[in-house]
Amino acid sequence: MCIAIPMEVKEINGKMGLVEHKGVQREVGIMLLDDLKIGDWVLIHAGFAISKLNQKDAEETLSLLKEAELIE
What we know:
Blueprint: E1 5-13, E2 16-21, E3 24-29, E4 41-45, E5 48-53, H1 55-67
Antiparallel strand pairs: 1-2, 1-4, 2-3, 4-5
């Protein structure tokens, strides 16, 4: 099973971005998405931001993943 995790964009450096959730930070490729800004929420899968989503949807997704015990 593959899962995409919502994370918040903290830094943008060309085609790479720093994302964070609950203090966990990852450098990911952001070249698949246009017009990203710091503070945007994105779905991360296999080291890439694959989709942009709003904060409400990100929080709902994180809640469901936690409920399913797929994340802490």
